[in-house]
Amino acid sequence: MYRQLEPESLEQLPTPARILAVAQGKVAPMLLWKTLERGERVECLDCIAPVAELLYDPHPKNREISAWWLRRRIFGVFGPGEVHEQLARSVTDASQSEHIRAYAAEALGEMLSVSGEEPLARALISDPSPRVRVAAARALRRLNKPGPNQELAQALSDTDSEVRLAALDASLRVVGFKRSDRVVGLLEDDAAAVRRLAAQTLGALRVSGALPQLSERLSPQNEGDPRVRAAAAYALGELRSSDARPALVEAQSDPDPFVRDAVNIALRRL
After folding, report:
1. Nearest Cα residue to 83 out of 110, 122, 118
2. DSSP code per residue over 205-268
3. Global confidence as pTM
4. Would you say 155 and 137 are in contact if contact means Cβ atoms under 8 Å apart?
5. Splitting the chain (270 residues) into consecutive groups of 10 residues, what average pLDDT does each group show?
6. What structural domains does the chain harbor?
7. How remote is the C-alpha of 101 from its chain's centroid?
8. Which three-class secondary structure state does DSSP give residue 130?
9. Separation between Cα atoms, residue 135 and residue 39, nearest integer Å
């Protein structure tokens, strides 16, 4: 059957030499993606080092596809002294630059190896750079790990709001997150974006003990941001508790129409 097809119409696997040339050259991201994706099963030990250098490329898509290709290798990537171990050392190495540590954290997440959890957790709570801590939180989310000592929960008290947001987002998605009480405290956060995500998280996790605090967030006197009030209404609806009805009924007169819509939807869920 294939003899009837034109050779140009058949997809060809890239040769190791082609992968090596693309990894070492200055090529467009799309060409790199195309070559590495088609070369998923092509074994090329000589290609590992050049592709590993792309883990620190300024272009995020180049970093992502490089980590994707590398995590399918066993020899030359995992094991003592290899790429994964080098990343684990770099992410907690204070002598490395901020962007190197952040890119190393990002790559550890994309490697999808649980051995990356410990160095990422350390970076999340101890790195002086918010950029690195954000990258570590997102990488833990990618690994579906909360940290060996619930470091994601500790990061909810970070001094930087972007880190708190990244940790909150991860806490909603990873299995084994156990500190919903810390999420409740973020309903009083200084940053509206953090309060909003905290409310959404409590609703998604169905933390029934947060009902009083969420009800307080429904009031314009307690919460000036309508997006947070709407998120609180959503969360109360997710709790499916009749105890939330009085606060929701009162919030039907909220001055913001978006909040009123969210309240009406929540009431239908009770």
Report:
1. 110
2. HT-GGGHHHHHHHTSTTT---HHHHHHHHHHHHHHT-GGGHHHHHHGGG-S-HHHHHHHHHHHH
3. 0.89
4. yes
5. 57 84 88 92 92 95 95 91 95 96 98 96 98 98 96 96 97 88 94 97 93 96 96 96 95 96 95
6. 188-270 (1.25.10.10)
7. 16
8. helix
9. 28
